[in-house]
Amino acid sequence: MMLEVKDLHVTVGGKKILKGLTLSMKAGEVHAIMGPNGSGKSTLSYVLAGREGYEVAGGSVTYDGHNLLPMKPEERAAKGVFLAMQYPVEIPGVTTLTFLKTALNAQRRARGESELDAMNVLKFVRQRATALQINEEMLKRALNVGFSGGEKKRLEILQMSLFEPRLAILDETDSGLDIDALKLVAEGVNTLRSPQRGMLVITHYQRLLNYIVPDRVHVLAEGRIVREGGKELALELEEKGYSEVLKVPA
Amino acid sequence: MSAALAPIEARRAEALDSFRVRGMPHRRFEHWRYSDLRAVLDAGQVAQAGTARWQISEIPDGVEMFDLSSGGAPEWVVKNLGNIGNRPTMEEASLAFADGGVALRVPRNRRIVEPVRLQISHAGNLRVLIVVEDGATVSLSELHTMDAGLVRNVGVEIALGEAAEFSHVRCAPPAPKSFNIEHIAVEAGRNARYTAHFGNFGSRLSRTELHILLGGEGSEAHLSGVTVLGAELHADVTSHIEHVAGKTLSTQLFKHVAGGRARAVYQGKITVREGANGSDSRQTAKALLMSQRAEADLKPELIIFADDVKCAHGAAVGDLDADSLFYMRSRGIPEREARRLLIHAFLEEAVAVIEDGALRDIVWRDVENALPRAMEAAK
Does domain A3-247 have CATH number 3.40.50.720? Predict the structure, then answer.
């Protein structure tokens, strides 16, 4: 297993959010996590990425055989964990290209690889950016500042493409996107599907899963996985709604 | 003795009397409340500090220079030296006790492209006089060295003629054992423009005080600065801009970063005099605190006697944004590097306004040197 989450309990500010979540995923697979608002979807993504303030009260997370939980966010990134965020932050004063270069080289350094010079970074970024319709002008702007919702999400996928993670977590990547932007982002994700890579696609709606077809669907409610199934489970959820599906015993 | 020296000597004697009567500024003066100079330094120490040294490696063509320690001052020096601004006590001290300094003049309509590079070193008092005549343009970098001894007290006077333009970058690296005082007085004629940037990296007590008189219609002052401090360093930037004539414009943008037990102060007073209609003033001051024991004091102040003016001010003190920090770390950037990058981002807009790339680099270099200390928590 690439990712194994066992009986995970997490509290945020004293409040229990995850209450015994169990989940496993093999390399090469795409899993969807669906659930209503407040079910703990974003908490799961933050805990996997290592955000402070999310206290693990029990359970374990194993990634490629290693205990993920004691690692700092930057160590996880260097080891191939990537979280595409629901709300990418705006950072005035740091250009997008500078940020990408700093992050790329920090990861390479942590893995004992040689750093890329400015020219090679630019070449690499250009090559990957074109497919996502990210132009030079966007790269020169301050990170995410003045970007539209679609541009921000495309930049998240560009980073995923540059960092080539082993485990990619996409947190509500579809939120705030119109259908054209959604297709573009989904295409970007699909080209990154590979036998070495696992993807955890977190979403509220089934719509994204029309474009990124999952191998497995998990339904998260009240901090636990309450149902699991194939891609057809997503359709069932869409048709009947969460409240109806959640009545059915797992 | 030439006859021309007499008025200067008379003015210096007057300054000495004035300083003796008023003495050292202290915290009961409202605008010295965050920098209690009298508590740490007495008048005798200032009087005995001697004269600091200055150096200009190359005088650009078209700039006239006069060494204030030599005799036979030309008329433009006699007329202006000690006569610009409102004669605060420490400036009177620098005039009274400095046996030297430098005066620069850019004649009418001369546009000097190369910046004048002034270096100030050693302890003591010092005077600097800049006269930019009508239609002339020049820029000055004022770089301080760290060997400030016990006290360095500099008085700078700047007279700008009609449509004259002067840009000024002052950079003072950390001097933990020194008291570093500087007073800058500016008088701007019609449509004149003063642009200044202050890179402050702290002293035991550091005070940069500006008094700017926008006396000519349409004159402008644009101030910016960064302060980066750690350990027990202190830096105070205090400005007073007086909009005397109509359609005058002033902008200020100051960014401070303080760690350890450092203290960063910004006080910005704007006075809009009666009749200065159509004036516009904006000031922004922000501070980042990197430790529980660091302190930032930001005090904007507006005094308005005219109608039809625009005045805006904002001040904010905070910590680095947790969302931004996590975002960067989640992309593999180690915490310390992420913090550094975010501090850079915070300071960026205040440094970006420096037009001369070489001077911008000097400020960034000093920021880089000061950052490790500023990023430390209190010991």
Answer: no
Residue indicated by tokens 């770089």? B143
Q: What is the pLDDT of residues B146-171, one digit of tens each?
A: 877 889 999 999 999 999 999 999 99
Cβ–Cβ < 8 Å for A209, A230: no
CA atoms of B20 and B14, how far apart (whole Å): 10
User: Beta strand pairing status for A142-143 and A167-171?
Assistant: unpaired
CA A49 – CA A42 distance, rounded (Å): 11
Q: Which residue of A has its CA nearest to B327?
A: A89
pLDDT digits (tens, 9 = 90+) for A74-124: 999 999 999 999 999 999 999 999 999 999 999 999 999 999 999 999 999
pTM: 0.91
Q: What angle do CA A100, A66, A43 make, to 5 degrees?
A: 65
Contacts of A73 in chain B (CB under 8 A): 326, 329-330
| B332 interface with A at CB cutoff 8 Å | yes
Query: What size, in residues, is chain B?
Result: 379
Give the Å distances, CA to CA, from B232 to B167, B178, B263, B379: 31, 12, 7, 10
Pairing of strands B193-200, B220-229: parallel
Reported as type and span, the H/E element at residue A48 is helix A41-49
ipTM of this predicted structure = 0.96
Q: Are B274 and B245 in contact (CB under 8 A)?
A: no
Give the end-to-end CA distance of chain B in Å, rounded to a whole number: 57
- How sure is the predictor about B4, in pLDDT bands with cuts at 50, 70 and 90? very low
Which of A45, A48, A89, A170 has the most B C-beta neighbours within 10 Å, making it the best mutation to test the interface with B? A89
Q: Which of B330, B337, B345 sits opposite A73 (nearest CB)?
A: B330
Domain boundaries, chain B: 5-374
Where exactly are the structural domains of chain A?
A: 3-247
Quick count: other Cβ atoms within 10 Å of Cβ B48? 12
